[in-house]
Amino acid sequence: MDCIAAISTPPASGGVSMIRISGEDAFEVAKKVFRPKFPTSDIDKMNGYTASYGDIIKDGQKIDDGVLLIFRAPHSYTGENVAEITCHGGICITKLVLQSCLDNGARMAGAGEFTKQALINGKMSLTEAEAVIDLINAGSEQLITCAKAQSEGALYRRIEKLCEDIIKVTSEIAVWIDYPDESEDEDEISRADWTVSVTELKNKMDDLLSTYDSGQIMREGITVAIAGKPNAGKSTLMNQLTGVQKSIVTDIEGTTRDIVEEMVMLGDIMLKLSDCAGIRETTDTVENIGVQRMLQRLDTSQLILALFDSSRELSEEDYRFIDIVKGRNVIPVINKSDLDTAIDTAYIEEKLGKAVTLSAKMGEGLDALEEMVREKCNIRKLDPSAGFLANERQRQCALSAARAVDNAYNALMMGMTADVAGLELETALSHLYELSGKSASEEVIARIFERFCVGK
Ligand SMILES: Nc1nc2c(ncn2[C@@H]2O[C@H](COP(=O)(O)OP(=O)(O)OP(=O)(O)O)[C@@H](O)[C@H]2O)c(=O)[nH]1
Ligand SMILES: [Mg+2]
User: Which among 88, 142, 261, 336 is most buried, taking Cβ atoms within 10 Å?
Assistant: First the structure.
């Protein structure tokens, strides 16, 4: 008997739990574990997508009552016969139901084995399977939208289209190898056509690769340090963005000492914010440590928001601060726009680039800040439905494919015979097949499913 079983709900107490059984003999196992209350709902006679209420049995004894759901092959998640038993949601009772399934012929499913089965049975592509894990782990609504688009095959279709484009060129080159053009003129025309096609391919590969950076920023966020001299309003900005009084705000200089960290959304960009101590010379030991930590944090952040108090003229500390952040990825932020201006914005812009003016206290000017963050970190709006690279594995495959396309392009430009370009394009194709899973090795597939939980 070959069928797998696992608890598909989280290992915690809840109202209900679900045990999933999949395989040719799933219904044979279900028959031994589940006894329908009403004889009319004999499992053999149940249609797919129907449910039955009844007793759950272990060692001949009723241990619980629950609901059995039936999915008949191929119309199920895995493409095989699937039975799902829902019981009461205690950890112990759920384990007993699973044990009964195992006692009656099912084998314990490995991590992600249901999804792996779906892959084997052609229910989904490799990139779609990868998206399932992203969907489970998605921490924001936007990530859910993206994972969903992927699980519906957006990337797969994009890769398929690229493969078609490549095959079109390689097949033309193959014909040329078999039947070389008679005249040199015709030869030139063919070569020019291929160069155009390969240039287009090159651009499409670049576009595909750039989706990885946008996706990564979306998943992991950008590390941002808020810095500036004491009382510039760093903690006020932090609190404005988090929406809670996370950092202490006072009009006393040197309020913040420890680094206060928080994840916030600025529009749809995730920021890992660090509110740091204000920069100044001080004899206070504790504050000094805070300043040192702030300087270290500037080194490890992807972006610095350099805050200035617009109601005051630039001071020695500001000049020193400007020197420290100059040349880094920095956005000068002229804060306290609700007060009268005394600051020399032109000087700051000359040293640090275009500034954003806002009022952290009033929450005004945050849209402009978002726009600037987008620009400084090169964040392009991601269109999830167009498909994007979602993980390092996919990126590596795409990179190798892009390299091969580049080689093909260079071969054509350098006037090598077309079969060289043809071979490079074949290589690109094989990397794209690996990406989409058409030719992924067992090892690659095993590595992907290691990330899954048991029961999915
Ligand atoms: N009017 C006005 N006041 C502000 C604004 N932002 C901050 N403040 C005030 O400026 C003072 C200092 O604010 P904080 O946010 O504590 O400044 P900080 O940069 O974190 O200061 P340190 O932690 O000491 O380095 C407080 O009294 C805030 O209310 C603003 O946009 N407008
Ligand atoms: Mg502060």
Answer: 336
Higher pLDDT, 438 or 312: 312
Residue 231 CA to ligand 1 center (angstroms) comes to 5
The number of angstroms, rounded, from the C-alpha of 350 to the middle of its chain's C-alpha atoms is 37
- Domain spanning 145-436: CATH 3.40.30.10: no
297 Cα to the center of ligand 1, angstroms? 20
Q: Pairing between strand 222-228 and 107-108?
A: unpaired
> What is the CATH number assigned to the segment(s) 3-120?
3.30.1360.120
Q: Ligand 1 site: residues with CB under 6 angstroms? A: 228, 230-236, 249-251, 253-256, 277-278, 335-336, 338-339, 359-361
Mutate to test the pocket of ligand 1, among 226, 229, 231 (most ligand atoms within 8 A of CB): 231
325: CB partners within 8 A, 6+ apart: 227, 298, 304, 306, 352
Q: How far apart, in Å, are the Cα atoms of 288 and each of 45, 223, 293?
A: 77, 23, 9
Residue type, 312: R
- How confident is the model over 234-274, as pLDDT tens digits? 999 999 999 888 888 988 888 888 889 998 988 878 899 99
Which amino acid, 408? A
Query: What's the pLDDT band for 1 if we cut at 50, 70, 90?
Result: low
Displacement of CA 421 from its chain's centroid (Å) = 34
Nearest to 68 by CA among 113, 100, 20: 20
Band of the pLDDT at 111, cuts 50, 70, 90?
confident
Q: What is the mean pLDDT of residues 206-227?
A: 86
Q: What is the pLDDT of residues 48-57, one digit of tens each?
A: 999 999 999 9
For residue 395 the two structure tokens come to 């990126």
Q: Is the pLDDT of residue 333 over 70?
A: yes
Residue nearest to atom 32 of ligand 1 (CA): 336
More confident residue, 315 or 281: 315
3-state secondary structure of 259: coil
| Candidate from 226, 234, 235, 236 with most ligand 1 atoms within 8 A of CB, to mutate | 236
Query: Token pair of 353, please?
Result: 């680039």
> Can you tell me the distance from the alpha carbon of 151 to that of 118, in angstroms, rounded to the nearest whole number?
12
**Torsion 73-79-83-86 (CA) sign:** negative
Is residue 181 over pLDDT 70? Answer: no
pLDDT band at 371 (very low <50, low <70, confident <90, very high): very high
Is residue 240 within 8 Å of residue 366, measured between CB atoms? yes
DSSP states of 364-377: BSHHHHHHHHHHHT
Beta bridge mates, 109: none
Contact by Cβ (8 Å): 217, 407: no
